């Protein structure tokens, strides 16, 4: 008998119809098992009434289909309820996280202000005088290998005495295992005691209490939970490091804790920064790997630190950095060659996995990076798309690309002020477009700048050399030319069908261009 029979109000002589009504009541009551039992009884009852069954077949099928639809809706509602519960649990976790680190995100409207974190000084203390460059690296305990001591050694060994006066190295031990931190600090202070005393090396630690909850975070990109935890904590590690370093120097360079440096990397970097004077940039890159060799203005560090904290669980730090520079209106990556830093570790800080990535643009001796003093560039060669003249003169991995040049066409560099040039090296063509070289051309230097309809140029020139296989190089120019050079000119001496790529124009001076 139907458990809902007490509520069946139809007359009993209607038989099967009364039972069908009971089925509806059982569905609404959520009693699916009894509903099925009633349907079976209904079918047996109809089997006894064969004539009546023929007339009742179509209504019965309608009732059956309706019942199945209600059952389906009931099950779907169950799934929806479970999904709502799951979302509610996730929301609750996020709210708990927010309550845990509300002090870290307080006053976000002051986006350029420092984050309120009380750091522990494990070694050294900051000096009152600002340096030119702060080099920051964050380190955690690895399951396999530890390279932080080698990284610090490379930074100091590859710097001259004068360069050491302009840098400060900050190591953030972002490990919650305090015994490990203390052990490593002892090794650092023993090996680099004179740098600690001189104020060139600081070791800091941000207490765990300032970190947001790192469990139960969003699993973007289907990353496993431990991977999400690792990369989210890494973002916070870097944020606290950037926050600490925001007022120590004019510029900030981010390294990882398993890096080897090129010789005199600071001097090479300063040449690049000087060459970018007057142009806007957020990030300059001196390596193409990870978060290695990324240079910032120190006054951008508070904003970058808060940005990493705000979106710490969304994606890895190197992806967030791309968004950060885009938001500050740097549209393109500005990366320089040769790379000044090389990844040297074999095992990742994440689970000790193998990581043998190498930067094939790295050069151990970077001291010979060109000066390329400030200048204006002019050409009458038909430029293809946006491959303009300035891209040949920059250290960025770009080039000038022009359509088939004719005899007499030129490419001129006019310096902002008189310059003593010691060496010039020009390369045309690329590995994938080896025919787009200057097949016949000359390298000239000139003096006495004049204005023309086609831009500025010099009134007199002296030839230094001819292009061979698309390249030309002139050395010891100061012994060959008696006047201060105001212009450098590339002249096409024979027309060619091939287009022309000027891959790089490198100039060296007798003194740094900023002096």
From TrEMBL:
Gene3D superfamilies: Galactose-binding domain-like (2.60.120.260). GO terms for molecular function: acetylglucosaminyltransferase activity. This is Alpha-1,3-mannosyl-glycoprotein 4-beta-N-acetylglucosaminyltransferase C isoform X3. Signal peptide: none annotated. Keywords: Glycosyltransferase, Membrane, Transferase, Transmembrane, Transmembrane helix. Residues 98-362 form the MGAT4 conserved region domain. The chain crosses the membrane at residues 55-75. Pathway: Protein modification; protein glycosylation. Residues 375-503 form the MGAT4 A/B/C C-terminal domain. It comes from the Eukaryota. GO terms for biological process: protein N-linked glycosylation. InterPro entries: Glyco_transf_54, MGAT4, MGAT4_A/B/C_C.
